[in-house]
């Protein structure tokens, strides 16, 4: 089979490898599409502690079950599927509660286990046992199905926020994650959605999502604009969908009393200590939430939203690439020239 193997920062090689054979308890998936995530960009650019080269990355996966290992039940060859990224220990409180993404012994497809930038991928026994293989509706195209993973992460972030009819929502960061947050806020009934970014190119790509207001915060004071749009009250919800300490600080300056903030985008380790005015949190009764990855039920919600058309996956996908152009696809995403790039295996 053909596979893209990560050897280190800036070094991905297309190689011919033996087609894997599933051991007892495992499942072999024929990958149809695998989308490029911002994390893939970071791994390719800088490496990552939980990715040990040489390694096949990629975790936004859609494909077909090719072969079922001995002892596996409830799955059949030819079934259209996606794979939940997070694989937990299965026995801790968080795993038993269904929140496998918070397991302290978390392992993940495309990080610890081999991922989807290959023609075939083994789903490990632990993931099969935990039900990480989820069926896809026949009417959901494979490229759009790859969006279930990032969309499920956004669902995880917004479950804390309780966005409701009439809310004003500000999303800082106009990449694919920010755009998904815009679409989810629409589904929840938000009346006014403001999307901000420092890149005019990103904002131009994001026009296909149709937020109510676009703000280039490199050219305009975002806090001032949000206060103007809300008659001085501030936004009900602010989501920082970018790795920016300044965005986290600004979120507190533009939130209304009893507002909700999601620090959705993680920060670089060397910039993760941020000075915040906690008196704003205290006197305005602000709630601030974190969000990391997602779990099975959120994947299922994402698949339902995509297959029903409530969220149109095709709006997010701007580029398709063959596997041997994976490095080019990653560079397109890194430069902000693609909203969502999907790699096609055939």
TrEMBL record:
The UniProt record lists the Enoyl reductase (ER) domain at 8-343
Query: Which keywords annotate this record?
Result: Metal-binding, Oxidoreductase, Zinc
- Note the InterPro entries from the entry: ADH-like_C, ADH-like_N, ADH_Zn_CS, ER, GroES-like_sf, NAD(P)-bd_dom_sf, Zn_alcohol_dh
Task: Provide the transmembrane region boundaries.
Answer: none
Which superkingdom? Bacteria
Drop me one GO molecular function for this one: oxidoreductase activity
Needs which cofactor?
Zn(2+)
Q: Which Gene3D superfamilies match?
A: Medium-chain alcohol dehydrogenases, catalytic domain, NAD(P)-binding Rossmann-like Domain
Family per record: Belongs to the zinc-containing alcohol dehydrogenase family.
Protein name per UniProt: Alcohol dehydrogenase
The organism that produces this protein has a lineage beginning with: Bacteria, Candidatus Aerophobota
